[in-house]
């Protein structure tokens, strides 16, 4: 073409007709070539190649439509502001377009996941793609787990202008996989596992060991109910056991039940799913072997205690005689030594007596002499019986008497033993000049007796062990009145033997309230009460 133009410019410089004719021929040939190429291009445009290109464009469109239909797609600028979203995004996260478009992507992330967001933004800003798992938050707060691919998009100058986010929702698949893995693991456990509704007690899941105990097939679990497999007394006791969980006062609860098929320990906690549904999860463990081992150990200790009891009683009596001055007046130094010996012998005798009581309770030798008892009278008697010890600790016992009768069917002597232990603990740990409150109140189908102190409180870490034998809470021991570490264990044994529950509420620096609950009993008639008292006296 350049040659042609050069020749054309020199046209008027040509002197001969031959040279002009030659130039004209070249121009004609060039024109023909251009025309031929144009016709060839037109023919090529109507060939299958063009149709292939059209089909390819259609395929790209369909692929984009399918991607938009089955994945979560969004576009964000380099500052993280969301520019557009597809319907999959709106459905997955529960937003409307107005609520999400124009807002920063941070609204999809929990605070602990923000570092991941900032890292991926830096990667995309460098023009590099990013791929990985993410944990995002929907509008209602539930977690959406996604597999994310982020592709940087460039402008005409090759600079990153925004980012295309393509996500796949894996929440359902991960949950299903976790459930399958959990079920396989839980099915093989030697403990019984029950998952059930807290209001109806209907089963959601029961593992193989639990199904064997209650005699139920796997395909019948969903229609079964926990209430159908335990006695009314056991269910009533269990309702009181889980009440602190449902009220948000505790995260776990533990109780021992002497079931007809053997003693079991029940550890229960409440589980809340992402959508807010609550289920109770109870792990039931057969503690027959543990009980036998404990009983064997306790029997050995009890045998020694029996041998120690008689000489200790004699030593204590002799020391009391010395203190009384029967054998003559003691010098101050000797009186001090005798006083120390007397107090320690009394403490040893208390430990021996507690061990013997605990051994009887654990072996089943103790038979409860049940009769109708008004708990209001029990509190008054307990306050009177422990008034001297309270005065020694410089605390006042304050009894709040209920207006209505509070009858239970119980062994009054054993309940008095429980009250004495709780009152003595409260008095020991309360500051001088404070009050220890005794009260009884109605709790559904039960009566609750509570003993409240103003002491240092109990660490939450001690909740699981405080009722165990020889347990004393570190940091809150009473130096003036040391205990045996058996009192609360005896209390729990007695209350459980009555079919009740015992627990405590506490606040560090403010004090603690120990309470037990027993099922209500009908108020007896005058004649019935007289007969019951006569029978109890005869049994004693």
Automatic annotation (TrEMBL):
Source organism (scientific name): Roseicyclus persicicus
EC number of this enzyme: 2.7.13.3
Alphabetized InterPro entries for the sequence: HATPase_C_sf, HATPase_dom, His_kinase_dom, HisK_dim/P_dom, HisK_dim/P_sf, PAS, PAS-like_dom_sf, PAS_4
Keyword Magnesium attached: no
Catalytic activity of the protein: ATP + protein L-histidine = ADP + protein N-phospho-L-histidine
PANTHER family membership: HISTIDINE KINASE 1, TWO-COMPONENT HISTIDINE KINASE
SUPFAM superfamilies: ATPase domain of HSP90 chaperone/DNA topoisomerase II/histidine kinase, Homodimeric domain of signal transducing histidine kinase, PYP-like sensor domain (PAS domain)
Histidine kinase domain location: 303-522
Keyword annotations: Kinase, Membrane, Phosphoprotein, Transferase, Transmembrane, Transmembrane helix, Two-component regulatory system
GO molecular function, one term: phosphorelay sensor kinase activity
Protein name: histidine kinase
Domain PAS stretches: 77-128, 178-249
Segments traversing the membrane: 20-39
Domain of life of the source: Bacteria
Keyword Transmembrane: yes
């Amino acid at each position: 073409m350049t040659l042609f133009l050069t020749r054309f410019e020199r046209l008027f410089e040509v002197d001969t007709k031959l040279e002009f004719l030659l130039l004209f021929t070249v121009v004609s040939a060039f024109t023909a070539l251009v025309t031929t190429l144009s016709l060839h291009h037109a023919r090529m445009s109507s060939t299958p190649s063009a149709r292939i290109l059209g089909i390819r464009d259609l395929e790209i469109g369909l692929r984009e439509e399918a991607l938009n239909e089955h994945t979560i797609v969004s576009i964000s600028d380099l500052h993280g502001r969301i520019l557009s979203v597809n319907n999959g995004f709106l459905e997955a996260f529960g937003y409307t377009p107005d609520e999400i478009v124009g807002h920063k992507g941070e609204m999809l992330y929990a605070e602990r996941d923000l570092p991941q967001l900032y890292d991926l933004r830096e990667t995309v800003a460098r023009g590099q793609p990013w791929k990985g798992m993410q944990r995002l938050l929907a509008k209602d707060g539930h977690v959406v787990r996604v597999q994310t691919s982020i592709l940087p998009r460039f402008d005409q100058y090759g600079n990153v202008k925004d980012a295309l986010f393509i996500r796949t929702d894996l929440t359902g698949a991960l949950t299903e996989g976790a459930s399958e893995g959990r079920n396989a693991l839980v099915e093989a456990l030697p403990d019984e596992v029950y998952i059930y509704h807290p209001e109806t007690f209907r089963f959601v899941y029961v593992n193989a060991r639990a199904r064997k105990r209650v005699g139920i097939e796997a395909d019948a679990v969903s229609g079964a109910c926990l209430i159908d497999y335990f006695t009314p007394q056991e269910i009533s006791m269990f309702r009181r056991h889980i009440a602190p969980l449902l009220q948000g006062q505790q995260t776990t609860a533990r109780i021992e039940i002497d079931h007809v098929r053997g003693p079991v320990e029940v550890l229960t906690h409440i589980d809340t799913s992402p959508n807010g549904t609550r289920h109770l999860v109870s792990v039931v463990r057969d503690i027959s072997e543990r009980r036998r081992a404990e009983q064997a150990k306790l029997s050995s200790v009890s045998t020694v205690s029996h041998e120690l009891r008689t000489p200790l009683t004699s030593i204590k009596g002799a020391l009391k005689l010395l203190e009384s001055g029967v054998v003559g007046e003691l010098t101050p130094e000797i009186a001090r030594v005798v006083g120390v010996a007397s107090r320690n012998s009394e403490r040893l005798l208390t430990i021996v007596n507690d061990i013997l009581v605990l051994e009887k309770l654990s072996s089943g030798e103790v038979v409860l002499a049940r009769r109708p008892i008004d708990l209001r009278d029990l509190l008054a008697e307990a306050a009177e019986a422990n008034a001297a010890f309270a005065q020694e600790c410089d605390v006042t016992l304050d009894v709040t008497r209920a207006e209505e009768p509070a009858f239970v069917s119980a062994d009054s002597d054993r309940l008095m033993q429980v009250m004495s232990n709780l009152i003595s603990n409260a008095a020991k740990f309360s500051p001088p000049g404070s009050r220890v409150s005794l009260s009884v109140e109605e709790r559904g189908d039960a009566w609750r007796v509570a003993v409240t102190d103003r002491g240092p409180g109990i660490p939450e870490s001690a909740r699981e062990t405080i009722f165990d034998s020889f347990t004393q809470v570190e940091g809150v021991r009473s130096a003036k009145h040391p205990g045996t570490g058996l009192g609360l264990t005896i209390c729990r044994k007695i209350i459980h033997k009555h079919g009740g529950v015992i627990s405590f509420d506490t606040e560090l620096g403010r004090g603690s309230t120990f309470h037990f609950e027993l099922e209500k009993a009908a108020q007896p008639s005058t004649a019935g009460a007289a007969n019951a008292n006569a029978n109890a006296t005869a049994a004693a």
